[in-house]
Amino acid sequence: MIETVEIDEPLSLEDHAQIVHLAEAVRFLREQAAALLPRLRGRRVWMINSTARGGGVAEMLPKVVALLRELGVPTEWAVMGSREPEFFVLTKRLHNLIHGHGDPLLTEEEHSLYAAVSAENAGAMKRRLERDDILVIHDPQPLGMGAQLKRELGIPTVFRCHIGLDERTPETRAAWRFLRPFAEDCDHSIFSAPEYVPGFLSDQSDVIHPAIDPMSFKNRPLSATKLAGILCNAGLMVSSEPVVPLSFAEAATRLAPDGSFAPIDARTDIGLLFRPIVTQISRWDRLKGWKPLLDAFVRLKSGRFTKRAGIADRHRRRLELVRLVLAGPDPAAVADDPEAQEVLRELIDSYRDLPPSLMQDVAVISLPMASRKQNALMVNALQLCSSVIVQNSLREGFGLTVTEGMWKHGAILGSRACGIRQQIRDGIDGRLVQDAEDPDELAQLLDEMLEDLPARARWGQSAQLRVHDQFLVFAQVRRWLEVLAERADPSAPV
């Protein structure tokens, strides 16, 4: 079950080069491409993953593919699938095991299921491949398929793993024992951090940091009028003033006290443009630390903080007004993440246990996925409205939601998960919580960050500069050109 994904990226490198602070990065990318393209002549690159929407991989691939094409490297994006729902249950287990969570016992039946689905997809993909193609396999779902194609066709194959853990545990060892035969069949592997590379791949791996497109709908600057228009048209805000209409395929919905999701109206409006807002936007995944963050917000709103001795009246009022936004994709739209519904249900149950007054101050938002552009604009608007952007992941391969918030010079509170530590320097680009499962520590840091406006401005400025220098898509594509050129001609120096 292979589906080719059509890509519509309206902005070219020339468009980016017209932005003064991006011009140098574009120039350097073009120079690098000119030097490497002769080694890639006659080659076509296939990027293969397991979903066309939802999650960081699906976010990054359209721009990477579009830029490689524009630079002269024919590149296609294909998505594997399966008629066996248990396959994605298994690969979600592998995902969690690589992050150090779950039951490490993997059965013979699971090995057989993985092999069967891999063989089916390899057969479907084989008909599309030519001898000089280069295959890039993203994450464990299509890894078995890629390994089989490598064995049968001998084409250059790269395993790009976007997840990992900076320690070795029984869980991670079990996952890598399962995946090792397939990963070793690939010519090369790419990880997001050196700490993630398993020992058996240490001699055939490189690091490429994930990155964002600064002019994508999720990351481009928005004027005040555009911001308000997106919020209103996307159903995230109710306004008494008229706004220019935008045609949104679906509106966002907010969790109601009865456990259903409903459109936001005047009674349930969040107050995004007027209140202090703490926001986390992620997939519905236990490893994203949703419950500890919710518990921390409950503590933040308690008398321990709002009635403490010596608190300034202005900050007390800030704590009274602050609201928490927990936003994620419509879980029904993310086919390769069967756990999402269950995790969201657990969060709904926790929400329904809150006192009615706190329910008003916590907005659990489902963001529709019918349009990638409109979903991106919703995320952009929510992040721009936020006083503090949180990524409380217990484990995080990298965390593009962190990168996105940093680019918008937001004040970021992150965990010390390895992927987030690659980006945020504590006290320089934002703050890092020592224990993402400790609601008291989270509440204390939220209180400090909300109170210290000058520090939030400093962190935001430093964060944006760090993304500009290290985590924009131009640097990512440069590294891909180097890796692909080496696979096309391993004997030549890059």
Provide tags for this entry.
494 residues; Rossmann fold; 2 domains
Q: How many DSSP helices?
A: 19
CATH level-3 fold name of the largest domain: Rossmann fold
Total strands? 15
Mean pLDDT over all positions: 94
Tell me the helix content.
40-55%
Report the structural category. Answer: alpha/beta
CATH homology group of the largest domain: Glycogen Phosphorylase B
Radius of gyration: 23 Å
Number of domains: 2
What is the CATH top level name of the largest domain? Alpha Beta
Instruction: Give the DSSP E fraction (strand runs of 2 or more residues).
Output: 5-15%
The strands making up the biggest β-sheet line up spatially as 9-8-12-11-10-13-14-15
Second CATH tier, the architecture of the largest domain: 3-Layer(aba) Sandwich
What would your notes on this structure say?
With 494 residues, the protein is of the alpha/beta class. The chain has 2 domains: 227 residues, Glycogen Phosphorylase B (Rossmann fold, 3-Layer(aba) Sandwich), CATH 3.40.50.2000; 247 residues, Rossmann fold, CATH 3.40.50. 45% of the residues lie in helices and 13% in strands. The protein is built from 19 helices and 15 strands. The strands form 2 sheets. An 8-stranded mixed β-sheet has the order 9-8-12-11-10-13-14-15, with helices on both faces. A 7-stranded mixed β-sheet has the order 1-3-2-4-5-6-7, with helices on both faces. Helix 4 packs across helix 5 and helix 4 packs across helix 7. The longest helix is centred in the N-terminal third of the chain and has 19 residues. The model has no long low-confidence stretch (mean pLDDT 94).
